[in-house]
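During the no-cost extension, the postdoctoral fellow (Dr. R.K.) reprocessed legacy sequence entries with the updated structure-token encoder. One reprocessed record is reproduced below for audit purposes.
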Amino acid sequence: MVHVRLNKQIVGIPLAAVILLAGWFLPPVEGLAHEGVVGLAILFAAVALWICETLPMGVTGLLALVAAPLLGVADINTVFSGFGTTTVIFAIAVFSLTAIVMKSDLAIRLTGFLVRLAGADSRRLVLAFMAAGAVLSAVMNDSATLVLFLGFADTIIANAGHEKGKSNLAKCLYLGSAFAIFMGGMATPAGASINVLALGLVEQATGLTIPFLSWVLAVAPVAVLMVPVIWFVLTRIFKPEPIAEESLRALTGRAAALGKLSKEEKKTLFFLIGIPVLWIAGSWIPALNVTTVSVIGLALMCAPGMRLLTFDEFQREVPWTIVIMIGAVISIGGVVGSTGGVAFLANAFLGSGVMGLGMFLTFWLITAAVYFTHSFVPVGPAFATILIPPLMAYCISAGYSPAIPAVLLAAILSGNLLLPINPGLALSYRDNVYTFADSFKAGIVPVFVLVTLLAAWVPFMVGVLGVPC
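Re-encoded structure tokens follow.
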């Protein structure tokens, strides 16, 4: 097994080299200059290294960024600009929530409740975790929700005596939490930042707004159906080990012995409830964006009189490899976008003739193509900005609501079930719990179900609701 893994890692080196050489020597193509071809080659070379797990994820991302100025695609002073975005700062600050929860006994209380609910049935425990994560992520940032639930999962795994990297229960809890949270995130406009971007694009193009409830009716039913679908597939592929009775008694007993909430736990609950409320309010109050709220929340947690957290406790909870990975992915996306790669891919698809098919097939193919492209080119906002306007124009000319492509693309770009190079899923890719192949195997069937449900339900419901037209 080690020999096979080593061979796979070594294969990534010549594969990435071939991709880079091909990109360098290929002539410019219509609609894409030489720099754009090389930019795409750098991206796909990085994807090859990620899939083969040749280097740590963050190191591969940094290496790809260094390759851009070396090959004349970008300037060294701007290529790392992704690390200065609010997304990276948010990715750091949001782990303050994990730190205060893991420092308190709230994780024991919640996991004790879920364990009591599920009993000795580990499959039912996975479903309970997924359902709770989906509900919370509908009104809370997906990344923050995932970070919290990974902490809860760690508590269960540790108390059950399972070893990460060898436990199917750990795989189910990590992947199940991530997948379900992405479903919850697409269910409401407040669930993901790209949903807000889609709302803005519709308003800019039509002058109309998609009401909150209309969005929920158009997407939430699909999200609700997807949670049991994902759970069924996941627990069939990775059959979770049962939890021993003594471990169950230990978890529930520890929760019962805690008694009433302590003063520190009440403070922790204040932040756990207050920060998401401000995030939701940020959908209408621009000053309350998730990054600003998260940084201020971190400062208050460390402030005199509150003292929920020290900086040492905070920085120990931040997975810096993932932070580097997120910054690198954003930066690579910027390089590909600035050299015309994203626009080239979008225009190639829109010019393929797919727009002349029937409504369901058209939207199914669009949704599927964007989903799989986004799996390897994880620049959701760029795809949304480039694809949604022309698709809305097509819908208006064809007599469909322009809200359809906006809602569809926001739903599929808010998360990814296939590869953990997407910044959201990357948060769960740690401690060797699962591999790239594991996430792909678990996600491929649910992806086709998701695409089919969205392509059938969203156009139908948007048409029934009649907004906006």
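The mean pLDDT is 84. Residues 87-191+225-320 form one domain. The remaining legacy entries will be reprocessed before the final report is submitted.
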